[in-house]
Structures are given as structure tokens and as C-alpha cells.
Design a protein that fits this description.
- The chain is an alpha/beta fold.
- The chain folds into two domains: 3-92 and 281-301, NAD(P)-binding Rossmann-like Domain (Rossmann fold); 94-273, 3-Layer(aba) Sandwich (Rossmann fold).
- The protein contains twelve helices and ten strands.
- The strands form two sheets. A seven-stranded parallel sheet has the order 6-5-4-7-8-9-10, sandwiched between helices. A three-stranded parallel sheet has the order 1-2-3, sandwiched between helices.
- Strand 7 (195-198), helix 9 and strand 8 (223-226) form a beta-alpha-beta unit.
- Helix 1 packs parallel to helix 12 (282-301), helix 2 (26-35) crosses helix 3 (49-55) and helix 5 (94-109) packs across helix 7 (149-162).
- The protein starts with a helix and ends in a 9-residue tail after the last helix.
- The structure holds NADP nicotinamide-adenine-dinucleotide phosphate.
- NADP nicotinamide-adenine-dinucleotide phosphate (NAP) is lined by residues 69-70, 90, 93, 97, 146-151, 169-172, 199-202, 205-206, 227-229, 253-254, 276, 278-279.
- InterPro entries: D-isomer_2-hydroxyacid_DH, D-isomer_2_OHA_DH_cat_dom, D-isomer_DH_CS, D-isomer_DH_NAD-bd, NAD(P)-bd_dom_sf.
- GO terms for molecular function: glyoxylate reductase (NADPH) activity; hydroxypyruvate reductase [NAD(P)H] activity; NAD binding.
- Residues 102-278 form the D-isomer specific 2-hydroxyacid dehydrogenase NAD-binding domain.
- Belongs to the D-isomer specific 2-hydroxyacid dehydrogenase family.
Length: 310
């Protein structure tokens, strides 16, 4: 946690802070749920049905106040069955994650990573008219897969900032303050856009939503950007599509088997690879922490939890 959040957690709730950054082991999760009233997990802590089952009757924990908006690492049905509430931190993450999507769009289309590597390697021989020609971003057509909070923040940036046309896929029609066309399915969306941005949560329904068929449907000049969760994109199919030149490039903040990043991706110049930076800004991580602590404060006071999932 940021210093600010850690100080409040200790002062307000007498919190114990775990200093290691590695994910919690099953044994640690089981122990934590036996020893504490509230646990604040984050995205790599896999609170599976097996973990809840192993805690059994020794359960003390009544709330998992997740630090983050995505909660696919928590088996919410098992939590509910065990009588453990789950909350998250929506909203706090939205703008920062949309900014990282724009970073990936620009870096990948304009070959910024590749150019930066050339400069650092001392291999830049000076400007010339046809050097490092990338794809123009302004005025292009963006497709948003998942028009929720983050999807809309990306679309707004693309429309107002870059004069782009916006199309999208969501389960429901959206009332938006900018023009955007809703498509019937992921394939229809993939076929028409220059940038396909993945912004859906990971779930059984969205697992490999972007598979070989969707990548095949994309224009060979189009780019894929994923700021949501690695599981939504079939990484094997993505590598095959890049190698076959079926798409022009990819910008990734998340990976299917994070933190493992396949060599085949690392070796490609037309792929931008970021280490899950979506919300990595001091103010944003503090806001997320405070949001999680606000849920805990409500729980302690017996009030309704502001960001209750189950
Ligand atoms: P959100 O507001 O819940 O939006 C999710 C959107 O996805 C909604 O428009 C939803 O449609 C749509 N959707 C869900 N399932 C779908 C399906 N099966 N088919 C088509 N559309 C579907 O969530 P958010 O706050 O924007 O966050 C999205 C995700 O981003 C999070 O779950 C998290 O995993 C990820 N994230 C990543 C980072 C990072 O560091 N890279 C940071 C923050 C969040 P409806 O509106 O019709 O329900």
C-alpha cells in the first residue's frame, strides 16, 4: 500500500500489513481468513473455492475488501456461500487505465518502443523522410470491446482527443455523450476497426473472447490493445496472428499467464509490452486504497458497503 493508505489502515483498524509483494499462498490465505475480520486482497491472490473450503468452520473473516476493480481472482459464489462479503474499487482506476490504453495505442501505432530502443542502442542515424513510418492514429476507427467505465473513458479520449470514430460491444445499449455505434458481436466489431481495445472483465463468458477467429477477422493493418485481463485474449492465437501478419501489431498491459510473457512476443518489434501499469500512479493507488478502507469502515460501522459485489 502507499504510505498514506498504510497509515490510515493502521490508525483506523489496527491493520497488520504484509510487506512481501508476491501473491498470497493458499496457506497464507487460509490463515488470514482464520485470523482476521477483514482481508484486503489484490489481483494475484487466488481466493478459490478450495481456499474457502479449507478454512471451513474456523472462518473469522467477514469481508474481502479487494484492492482493485477486477475481482476474477475471487470465487465470489464460494465467498457468498461462506458468508464473506466482497467489495472492489471501481471508478478510482478508470482514467489511469484509459490513459495506459492511449499510451499503448500511440506507442504501438507510432513505433515508439522500437524507436526508443534504436536511440538507446546508439543506432539512430538521423532523420530521413521514410524512417520508422508507423500508422497514423488521429481520425481512425476504434472498437471498444466492453463499453463500461474504462471502455467509455477510452472512447471519450479517442473521440474528443483524436477525432476517431467509435464502435463498441457491450451486453447492453449505452447512453453515451459521444457518437458510437453498438455492434452485434465481437467479430462484426473486429472486422471494421483500426484499433480493437479489450476492456471487458475476465469471466467464464469472456475467456478467449479474442481468439483466432476474431484476430483473423481484423484488418491486417489493425492493432489489438489489451488493458483488461490476459485471459480475455488467446495469447497463443495472438502470437500466430502476429507471425502470419494477420494484424499490424499489439499493445499489451496484461498477459494470459502473468507475469510470464512469451519470448515470441518479446522478440516482435510491432508489439508494445507493459508490466500491468494500468493503475500505477501514486494518487490512483492511494485512491484505490482509501476506497477499500471506506468499504472496511462501513463494514465496521454496520453500514451498507459502498462497493458491494456479493
Ligand atoms: P465495467 O464498468 O464493469 O465494464 C465492463 C464492460 O464489459 C461493460 O460494458 C460490460 O457490458 C462489458 N461486458 C462484460 N461482459 C461482457 C461480455 N460477455 N460480452 C460483451 N461485453 C461484456 O468494468 P471497468 O471498470 O470498465 O473495468 C473493466 C476491467 O478492466 C476490469 O474488470 C479489470 O479486469 C480491468 N482493469 C485492468 C486494469 C489494468 O491495470 N490494466 C486496471 C483496472 C481495470 P454491460 O455494461 O452491458 O454489462
Amino acid at each position: 500500500m502507499t504510505a498514506d493508505v498504510e497509515a490510515r489502515a493502521k490508525a483506523e483498524f489496527g491493520a497488520t500489513v504484509r510487506m512481501e509483494t508476491a501473491p498470497l499462498s493458499n496457506a497464507e490465505m487460509i490463515e488470514a481468513m482464520k485470523a482476521y475480520d477483514v482481508v484486503m486482497p489484490s489481483l494475484k491472490d487466488q481466493f478459490s473455492a478450495e481456499v474457502f473450503a479449507a478454512v471451513g468452520a474456523d472462518l473469522r473473516c467477514k469481508l474481502l475488501a479487494n484492492f482493485g476493480v477486477g475481482y476474477n481472482h475471487i470465487d465470489v459464489a464460494a465467498a457468498k456461500a461462506a458468508g464473506v462479503a466482497v467489495t472492489n474499487t471501481p471508478g478510482a482506476v478508470t482514467d489511469a487505465t484509459a490513459d495506459i490504453a492511449m499510451t499503448l495505442i500511440l506507442m504501438t501505432a507510432r513505433r515508439a518502443g522500437e524507436g526508443e530502443r534504436i536511440v538507446r542502442a546508439g543506432k539512430w542515424e538521423g532523420w530521413h523522410p521514410v524512417q520508422f513510418l508507423g500508422a497514423h492514429v488521429s481520425g481512425k476507427h476504434v472498437g471498444i470491446l466492453g463499453m463500461g467505465r474504462i471502455g467509455q473513458a477510452i472512447a471519450r479520449r479517442c473521440h474528443y482527443g483524436f477525432g476517431m470514430d467509435v464502435s463498441y460491444l457491450a451486453r447492453s445499449e449505452k447512453d453515451l455523450d459521444f457518437p458510437a455505434e453498438r455492434m452485434r458481436d465481437a467479430k462484426e466489431l473486429a472486422q471494421i476497426v483500426d484499433f480493437l481495445i479489450v476492456a471487458v472483465p475476465a469471466s467464464p463468458e469472456t475467456q478467449h473472447l479474442v481468439d483466432a477467429e476474431i484476430l483473423d477477422a481484423m484488418k491486417d493493418t489493425a492493432f489489438l490493445v489489451n488493458i483488461a485481463r490476459g485471459e480475455v485474449v488467446d495469447e497463443h492465437a495472438l502470437i500466430a496472428a502476429l507471425e502470419a501478419g494477420k494484424i499490424a501489431g499489439a499493445g499489451l498491459d496484461v498477459y494470459e499467464f502473468e507475469p510470464k510473457v512469451p519470448e515470441a512476443l518479446k522478440q516482435r518489434e510491432n508489439v508494445t509490452l507493459l508490466p500491468h501499469l494500468g493503475t500505477a500512479a501514486e494518487e490512483v493507488r492511494s485512491q484505490m486504497g482509501h476506497m477499500a478502507l471506506d468499504n472496511i469502515a462501513a463494514f465496521v460501522a454496520g453500514r451498507d458497503l459502498p462497493n458491494l459485489i456479493v
